[in-house]
Amino acid sequence: MDVRSYKIVFALFLSIETILLFGLTTKSAMSQGIHPAYQPSSFDSPSVLTTPYLSPLQSSTASQDTDSATRQETPWEPSQDTQHSATTAASTNQESRTRRRPPSPPRSVAKNLGTFISTDRFNFSNFVYNIYGYSEFPVQGRLKVADNNSAAPDDRFIFRYNHHHNALDSQVVNAAGAVTNRSSHLDYYTVGFEKSFRNRCWSLEVRMPVFGARNEVFSDGFSTDVGSVGNLAFIVKRVLSQNDCRVISAGLGVTAATGDDANFIVVDEQLTVKNRASHIVPYLACLWTPSERVFVHSFLELDVATDGNPVEYRDLLPGGANYVLGHLNSQTLLSYDVSLGYWWYRNPCNRISGVASLLEFHYVGTVNDADIVSCAAGCGSFGFGNYLNSFNMLSLTAGIDVEICNCTNLRFAGAVPLRDNDDRFSDGEVQSSINWRY
Question: How much of the chain, in percent, has pLDDT values that exceed 70?
Answer without folding.
Answer: 75
